[in-house]
């Protein structure tokens, strides 16, 4: 199957085709090659999670009670529609501040609209918009995109991306923090996260200095608020209509977490436990004050000395091992402080966002990372270093969900496409158990849960797992799903067919409907939309060549 819209520019790939002089040169048909009938997505009525075995080979009933999903036999609300969004490329706006390949983008949006997609998501990079200096904003490329999205009848989810792009899973380009911010970092390296060995991470400003005027007289929270306020003023006429959601970035990759597992320069590799990021002077001062406040001054000198290194396993360390100090009085103090600081950071940013966007008609959302490796261990080491105080004995996601609920923020979560059996045994993974726990937390907090896939997936199995997750489990289905990510491969052969089927299934409540035979045996399904667009003299682009 090939999906083609002829144009002057080839989307995603580097080499551009030669320019067409007029819109009349654009093909007015889109055809599918004859292929076998589309697959039927099958979604299970309940999630299945393997029992966790302890070192003696017996089922650990405590783990199963706290974290393992039970079999639920409920009547799913099949009429509930789950809108699907698609993430745009990370380099949708270039370092020069221009919309990247606008004709190709327009054609791709056209195809997505015809497939039934609700809208798209885009990162609005701090490093691009405010790069010319403090309070000097350039929104023009994003304004062009918003107008293009509106023209195609789509919605737009906007990510306030206060982090750098580059150095993490899936990062295909580099967008550092604004140059003037990097200058301040060079003068005062403690304003970025630091690990025990002194390694600085410029992905995101340390939450330790949230309330300190380290950015040319403004605090980081003030800088983020000014940025969001400028965005609101520039796009006021589109908020609540074209722009339906603002996802508020609160950490690396836009997620509320510490940068505990950085991939840059080979620092971390899956499934390493990561490292605590609490060694800049601001975090150290906060820890010292917290320890002194409870009469344990000796606990305030730094993070755990026996928590290991990025690529170790829990049992290699004194802190995270089965009966380690994570569960001691000291461990509980430290993790309470470390996770509490993260919650306070999220609270500060969301308070600003709520005040700025109230009455605008947009939803606010926050993103939480799906750290599923070592989930079956007692300490949940990888989650702890990221700031999620989630262990065999403590629920780390309910406090986050309750904090989000206080500000009417949608809880956006990743790894919705993953199955336990697909993960390597040695990594002690349970993405299904983790998703179930998060669904329970959001249901308890009475907030909406939205989802994303953590890694690129084009296969029917990945889509079927998302369908299973999206189905209501005692009222905890998905409010929306955002697919990662639009690129050349998405429009190829069966990949496109799977996406179209998936979008249709999600729109019908996950009932596993297949596309009509006419769609599988060659049709001009998009012709009407293209002709209508042609009448409006819209420029078009190549989706796949």
From TrEMBL:
EC main group: hydrolase
Entry-linked PROSITE patterns: BETA_AMYLASE_1 (PS00506)
Keywords from the named record: Carbohydrate metabolism, Glycosidase, Hydrolase, Polysaccharide degradation
Annotated protein name in UniProt: Beta-amylase
Enzyme Commission number(s): 3.2.1.2
PANTHER family, sorted: BETA-AMYLASE 1, CHLOROPLASTIC (PTHR31352), BETA-AMYLASE 3, CHLOROPLASTIC (PTHR31352:SF1)
Family named by the database record: Belongs to the glycosyl hydrolase 14 family.
Active site (catalytic residues): 255, 452
GO biological process: polysaccharide catabolic process
The reaction(s) this protein catalyses: Hydrolysis of (1->4)-alpha-D-glucosidic linkages in polysaccharides so as to remove successive maltose units from the non-reducing ends of the chains
GO molecular function: beta-amylase activity
Binding site for substrate: 123, 163, 171, 367, 372, 414, 453-454, 485
């Amino acid at each position: 199957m090939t999906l083609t819209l002829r144009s002057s520019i080839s989307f995603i790939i580097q080499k551009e085709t030669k320019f067409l002089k007029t819109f009349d040169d654009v093909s007015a048909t889109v055809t599918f090659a004859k292929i076998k009938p589309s697959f039927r997505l099958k979604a299970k009525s309940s999630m299945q999670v393997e029992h966790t075995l302890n070192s003696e080979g017996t089922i650990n009933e405590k783990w199963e009670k706290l974290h393992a999903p039970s079999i639920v036999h409920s009547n799913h609300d099949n009429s509930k529609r789950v809108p699907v969004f698609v993430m745009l490329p990370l380099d949708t706006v270039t370092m020069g501040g221009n919309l990247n390949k606008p004709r190709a983008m327009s054609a791709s949006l056209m195809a997505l609209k015809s497939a039934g997609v609700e809208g798209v998501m885009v990162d609005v990079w701090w490093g691009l918009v405010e790069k010319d200096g403090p309070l000097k904003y350039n929104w023009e490329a994003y304004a062009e995109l918003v107008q293009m999205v509106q023209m195609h009848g789509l919605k737009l989810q906007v990510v306030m991306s206060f982090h750098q792009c580059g150095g993490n899973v899936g990062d295909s380009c580099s967008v550092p923090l604004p140059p003037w911010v990097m200058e301040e970092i060079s003068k005062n390296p403690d304003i970025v996260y630091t690990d025990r060995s002194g390694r600085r991470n410029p992905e995101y400003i340390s939450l330790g200095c949230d309330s300190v005027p380290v950015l040319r007289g403004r605090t980081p929270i003030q800088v983020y608020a000014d940025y969001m306020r400028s965005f609101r003023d520039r796009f006021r006429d589109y908020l609540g209509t074209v722009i339906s959601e603002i996802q508020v970035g609160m950490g690396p990759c836009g997620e509320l977490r510490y940068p505990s597992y950085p991939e840059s320069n080979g620092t971390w590799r899956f499934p390493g436990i990561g490292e605590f990021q609490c060694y800049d002077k601001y975090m150290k001062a906060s820890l010292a004050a917290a320890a002194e406040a409870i009469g344990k001054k000796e606990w305030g000198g730094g993070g755990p000395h026996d928590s290991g290194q990025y690529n170790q396993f829990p049992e290699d360390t004194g802190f995270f091992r089965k009966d380690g100090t994570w569960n001691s009085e000291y461990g509980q103090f430290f993790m309470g402080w470390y996770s509490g600081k993260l919650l306070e950071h999220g609270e500060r940013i969301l308070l600003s966002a709520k005040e700025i966007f109230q009455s605008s008609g947009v939803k606010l959302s926050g993103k939480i990372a799906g750290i599923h490796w070592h989930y079956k261990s007692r300490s949940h080491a990888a989650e702890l270093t990221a700031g999620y105080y989630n262990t065999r004995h403590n629920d780390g996601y309910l406090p986050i969900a309750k904090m989000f609920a206080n500000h009417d923020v949608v809880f956006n979560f990743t790894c919705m496409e993953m199955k336990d059996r697909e993960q390597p045994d040695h990594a002690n993974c349970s993405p299904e158990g983790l998703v179930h726990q998060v669904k329970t937390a959001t249901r308890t907090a009475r907030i909406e849960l939205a989802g994303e896939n953590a890694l690129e997936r084009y296969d029917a199995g990945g889509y079927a797992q998302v369908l299973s997750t999206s189905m209501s489990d005692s009222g905890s289905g998905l409010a929306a799903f955002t697919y990662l990510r639009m690129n050349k491969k998405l429009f190829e052969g069966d990949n496109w067919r799977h996406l179209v089927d998936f979008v249709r299934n999600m729109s019908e409540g996950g009932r596993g409907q297949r596309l009509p035979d006419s769609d599988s045996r060659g049709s001009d399904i998009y012709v009407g939309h293209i002709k209508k667009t042609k009448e409006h003299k819209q420029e078009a682009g190549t989706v796949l060549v």
